[in-house]
Design goal:
The chain is built from 22 helices and 16 strands. By secondary structure, the protein is an alpha+beta fold. A hairpin with a 4-residue loop joins strand 10 and strand 11.
């Protein structure tokens, strides 16, 4: 009997993991959380994002200088909401906001983190050291909010344009260059990947999902990836987080001083400037303006006005018409939207405010090769469907704004690529007798490592993880003479 290992493995691509502030901090070690809580702005942001019951617990024991029995905390709410209280308690524990403490008599109690408690009081009541960007400059020529909005979106769209235009021959990206540092963040976040042959970057499945998010969610996810790599740049993670939250609490249209900032924070400020979160006329200028992209960046419940122009508002309401003949009409003049459609459609004509394309087998398969799924294509077309498509009789009956034939065909084109599933494994063959084959096959089947078998050819395949167990069994079996 011989065995040989196969090396073909088809990994199912994962979806983009969009973490909120709580989810991000829960993945940090307790030692780092303790350092982070030395900054009042971070404590205020964490408190603001807590569940409502958690906020009630914190504010009720914030000024209590001793541990509070857990039974007392539990009595503050009705037993009807015991599940919600358990979730709130677990959230505070995982964020290291409070910890279990013992009181006389051995009763378990809750005690707020002294660092978190001290700095949250400073954030709520005032005091402590001034924030690094707490001074208004009130320069002679303050920038208007409309100018800041235009600037923010122009800078942020450079990143999005690069994602959809990289690796192609499109002229869209000619004037949409971004720094190598931003490219590294996109690669680190798996929003883009480099081609193994020529090294050119291309968008991934997660990158396409990223483009479907709203601007606020995009910026927050991008900044989380930046924070994951900030220590590699020699930057202090708590300082960067503190400044990011200070920007989220700032006033739109006001300029702030950069005097007194450390060299690391000045470097961080330049990175924020490139991404469109702040405006600074020159690198060495002593003042800067936070833009709308940085306001309430961590607050998922905040209502932040749109940063775009009138054309963006039209696109948000829907601008794509899909016909049963697979023709796609997009009422837009946005280069970004055109590039997005070009990822999975064959563009035919371009007129002022109108793009005409067609969904073909080749164009869809090209998108599938890049990691984009049929579900994502359908979701994108539905998300931006023109209002006239949503209100049609067929859309009301099928609960879908797209023609069923188009949706089915896109999924069929995807199924053409999914007819085979590859699994890494080890092949066993050339058994000397049928009895040997059946014995080893039954053992592999009993421990759930058998992938495939052919009794006629005396050939079987086991998983790579199960190979060692099957090999050991065969040696014992052979040693005992069968």
């Amino acid at each position: 009997m011989t065995s040989k290992s196969g090396s073909i493995l088809l990994m199912k691509p994962s979806n983009i993991d969009c973490k909120d502030l709580q989810s991000y901090l829960k993945t940090r070690p307790p030692e780092l959380l303790e350092k982070i809580y030395h900054y009042p702005t971070i404590c205020l942001a964490v408190y603001r994002e807590l569940p409502e019951i958690s906020r009630q617990f914190v504010i009720r024991i914030l000024f209590v200088e001793q541990p509070v029995p857990q039974a007392v905390v539990a009595s503050w709410g009705s037993q009807i909401f015991a599940k919600e209280q358990a979730i709130a308690t677990s959230c505070l524990t995982e964020l290291n906001v409070w910890r279990v403490a013992a009181i006389p008599g051995g009763l378990p109690a809750w005690e707020l983190s002294s660092t978190f408690s001290k700095n949250l009081k400073i954030a709520l009541l005032g005091g402590g050291r001034p924030w690094s960007m707490s001074t208004f400059m009130d320069g002679p020529k303050p920038k208007e909010v409309s100018f800041l909005d235009t600037y923010a979106m122009s800078r942020w769209r450079c990143v999005l344009h690069y994602m959809v235009g990289a690796g192609s021959n499109s002229k869209i990206r000619e004037n949409e260059g971004i720094s190598p540092d931003a490219v590294r963040i996109l690669l680190h976040a798996n929003l883009m990947r480099r081609d193994e042959r020529d090294g050119t970057p291309s968008i991934t499945r997660q990158g396409f999902q990223f483009l479907l998010l709203n601007s606020q969610a995009q910026v927050w996810h991008f900044m989380l990836q930046y924070l994951d790599t900030c220590e590699e740049r020699g930057l202090n993670l708590p300082e960067c987080l503190s400044m990011l939250f200070q920007l989220s609490f700032s006033t739109l249209g006001k300029d702030y001083s950069s005097e007194g900032m450390s060299s690391g924070m000045l470097t961080f400020l330049q990175h924020l400037r490139e991404f469109g979160l702040v405006y600074q006329r020159k690198r060495k200028e002593g003042r800067f303006y936070p833009t709308r992209l940085s306001l309430n960046i961590t607050n998922k419940n905040a209502i932040v006005p749109s940063v775009g122009n009138d054309d963006d508002k039209v696109e948000e309401n829907g601008y794509i018409v899909v016909e049963t003949n697979f023709r796609v009409y997009a009422y837009t003049d946005s280069n970004l939207q055109v590039a997005l459609l070009g990822l999975f459609t064959e563009l035919l004509y371009r007129f002022p405010n109108l793009i005409v394309g067609v969904l073909t087998r080749d164009s869809v398969r090209q998108a599938l090769k890049g990691g984009i799924t049929a579900e994502q294509i359908v979701s994108y077309l539905q998300q931006y469907a023109h209002p006239n498509m949503i209100n049609t009789e067929s859309a009301v009956k099928t609960r879908s704004s797209l023609p069923p034939t188009v949706v089915d065909q896109i999924k069929l084109w995807e199924n053409e690529r999914n007819r085979f599933v590859y699994t890494e494994g080890v092949v066993y063959n050339q058994f000397l007798s049928q009895a040997d084959f059946i014995t080893l096959r039954d053992y592999a089947l009993s421990i759930n490592v058998l992938v495939w078998q052919s009794e006629r050819n005396r050939t079987m395949v086991v998983t790579k993880n199960g190979h060692d167990d099957v090999k050991k069994f065969w040696k014992r079996y052979s040693k005992n003479g069968g």
